[in-house]
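input
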Amino acid sequence: MTLTELPQRIPEYSALKEIDIIKLIIWWAQTYCQRENVTGEYLRQCYGTLGRATPDGGFSAYFKSLEERKPKHLIRSRDGYKLEHRIRDDLSKKYGQRDARDATIHIEKILAELPAKLANPAERTYLEETLICIRHKAFRAAVVMAWNLAYDHFCYWILADTVRLASFNATSPKRLPGMKYPPITNRDGFTEMKESHVIAIASSSNVITKNVARVLDEKLTRRNMAAHPSDVSTLQPTAEEVIRDLVENVVLRLQ
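output
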């Protein structure tokens, strides 16, 4: 959520007191900009972005009031102020879930509209399983299934055009001379190759753009973290970002 979207996402925004607006902006900065601390100057910049007049006398009195509340609402350091963790958690429960739900609705809409654009039955199966996983909060599995959907689509897209396929096969021994992959003639041929190698060859042969290759490389890394034992969590926002990127920048772009 951007700062300019903040008032639109919170119906009661216009009725909030000034001190609550300040807390809300600090929460936004910590949650969506990963800022550890916020200063008065930073708040002034945020007010300017929102087209909101800075309070008379600045923010010092508000900072002091929030710091002196019991329990504390703000914690001061030499670098500025941050919300006390219970206050931050309360605001996240109140406002963060709305943003998360909006993202979920968007992802489900993208996936629900996708079957009409998929001719391959295998891709439709991957899509159905991706939807099941995301709806049941199996986020690691959702990332894996979304990758399967996009990668399968990518491989069939190469096969569907003789010029693309010829360019891919001609580039393969030049790009990876030590691998000695046989020319691809059907979908099974791709299973003999590492996925990262398929992406590298497709990129080198200009079958796909560098940007599409970058998306595939990034999401392959994320798929590997989700599929293999790892201490890296796969949370809902991460899974939804992976799905959206793969669908919009691979499945729908490669048509």
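quick obs: Residues 106 and 238 are 14 Å apart (CA to CA).
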